[in-house]
Amino acid sequence: MSLKPPKKSDREKAWMKKRRDREIKISPEYHLIVTEGELTEPQYFKAIRDTINQRYRERIQLDIFGEGDNTVSLFEKAKKRAIQSSNVYKHVWVVYDTDSFPADHINRTVELCKSSSTDETEFHAIWSNQCIELWYLLHFSFFQSDIHRDDYYPKLTEHLNYIGEGEYSKGRNDMYHILLPYMDIAIANAKKLDMINDKKTPAQSAPGTKVYELVEKLKPYL
Predict the structure, then answer these.
(1) pTM of the model
(2) Of the candidates 119, 122, 126, 35, the residue with the CA atom closest to the CA atom of residue 77
């Protein structure tokens, strides 16, 4: 091969020009959200998905399924969906209430998520003790009393009435948009509960919720 520089007359020829690398299309980051509830939780997270899709669909995509199952069984369904999907999920979020399920099932789900996580796919146990309504309530105030899940509804109604949003009912499809202005407050309050519940199991953490971990992960796109 000649080491002489190319002739001036050849410099502009196509075969002498540097090749431009083709634009590499980066696939979006896929998230799978599988919830215990078939209505309340899916509606909340679908509102988040719709908001993200308006601007960031090419960067992050959410698949959401309300399975109507709980704890360990819910984890197994989430794992099965992840394995069977054509998407490679970076994160799988297993969202469930503790309700009155056995403590070993509640805690076992966390262990299963940790042991099933890989460098490719991370599983997250997003539990609420006792229910996701605790996450809603934390948007308005810090709350650390261990009360029955049914008692959250009148408390939420009181706060919603105060801001002119009417009565709380299970399955309201506008909760995400109503609560959005108070999201940072809820995250801070949930983290505070996390500190109080440090070293406790999910079953012992009453009240407590990990929903903020999922919301905080998606917050940059909201």
Answers:
(1) 0.87
(2) 35
